[in-house]
Amino acid sequence: MRKSKSRQNPWITKLFFILPILIIVILVVYAYVNLNAPGTLMVQAQTSSGAPLQVQALVSGMSGETPWSLTLGQGNYVVTFPTIEWYYPPPSRDVALQSGQTEYAVTVYQPIAKVIAVTSSGFNSTNITALHGTTPVVWANFGSSPAVFSGPLIGRTIIQPGQTFTYTFSVVGSYTYMALDTNRTVTVKVQ
User: Strand, helix or coil at 171?
Assistant: First the structure.
């Protein structure tokens, strides 16, 4: 009896040889494309109350107004926020952007408080300026006895030694306050 030899199709043999190479090439191309895919950087600025601010931010030398969306390659970026009136300048941010990911660079601008010292001799200032809805005006008693003053919107106020009273004006105007012990006044101009 004769043994039959099995013959394989030459195309199948070539396919088994080429198929692993083709899979490796596809995986390398896929990895290359994914590693070089751009990411998204969202740059935002807001007040401490959460209200959005429009400021000119810088991202590694590029300038744009917040809220700002950038499509960038993978890497590290420095986001710098400008100084604006009535607010403390926020620090710059370092952001590491990954391929295909979205990163957020959000800063919160804190308002600059205006401090009025109230002592037994009166106020330390005669005029201050505040931004309505933003600037906290802080009356602070640095003396050793209670300080009493009065004026519009807040009425008669007593501040104990070492204590403060804070008010944020919501209406534009000019408001004069009198230290009741000394009859000295301070005017708060609200813009």
Answer: coil
- Mapping DSSP onto H, E and C, the string for the chain reads CCCCCCCCCHHHHHHHHHHHHHHHHHHHHHHHHHHCCCEEEEEEEEECCCCEECCEEEECCEEEECCEEEEECCEEEEEECCCCCCECCCCCEEEEECCCCEEEEEEEECECCEEEEEECCEECCCEEEECCCCCEEEEEECCCCCEEEEECCCEEEEECCCCEEEEECCCCEEEEEEECCCCCEEEEEEC
Q: Enumerate domains of the chain plus CATH numbers.
A: 39-109 (2.60.40.1120), 114-190 (2.60.40.420)
Separation CA 60–CA 80 (nearest Å):
8
pLDDT tens for 43-85 read: 999 998 899 999 999 998 899 999 999 999 889 999 999 999 9
- Provide the whole-model pTM: 0.71
pLDDT band at 33 (very low <50, low <70, confident <90, very high): low
Name residue, tokens 């295909």: 100
Backbone region of residue 162 per phi and psi (left: phi > 0; alpha: psi in -120 to 50; beta: other values):
left
User: SS3 for 33?
Assistant: helix
Is residue 125 within a helix (H) or strand (E), and if so which, with residue range?
none
